[in-house]
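Worked problem 6 (solution included).
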Amino acid sequence: MAERLDTEIRREQILQAAMDIVREKGLRNLRIPDIAKRVGLVPSAFYRHFSGKQELVLVLVGRIRAALENHLAVSKKEAADPLQRLGTIMEMHLGVMRESPVMPLIVLSEDAAFGDAKMRRLILDIHSFFRGAVAGLLEEAKAAGRIPGDTDSEVAAMIYVSLIQHTALLLAISGGKVDMGQKAKNAWREFVRRIGT
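Solution. The predicted structure is:
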């Protein structure tokens, strides 16, 4: 059992080293020898933990989905009102991005858009999942009379996700140095004002 724990710790070290390299050099310049060196491994030892760069990046992208699922679950425990839940989800998501601005770099990378087909599918699935969850909350808001009944939940969900993505992009390209917290809160308030009843 101790060996498994050691493997999990090492995997986490490898993932953290990979995120650090992506933050510094971009996804395209992520190299297994560089990761191994940062963790104190020989490059061949990397393959005991991951089959290659693709698997490592897919694990990182998978963490985004897990974070979104967690944000949805936490928001449901914290508030019954669907608009309050959306506000909580936005705050939590932006908090994760402030802590780890590398995630948007991966999702918005050229490799994500034009590279590996598995990564593209996974990222598209995450976007679809999140937009669908947001649209569902907006439907709940319509049913509760919190937003007009003629609101197009799909379009409003796209706008909501865009608020987050724009903030993520600015955080990522600034290396986390641009604090968009207040601007994101203002954008959220404006979003609610525009769609609210």
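Discussion: The chain has two domains: 1-50, 58-195.
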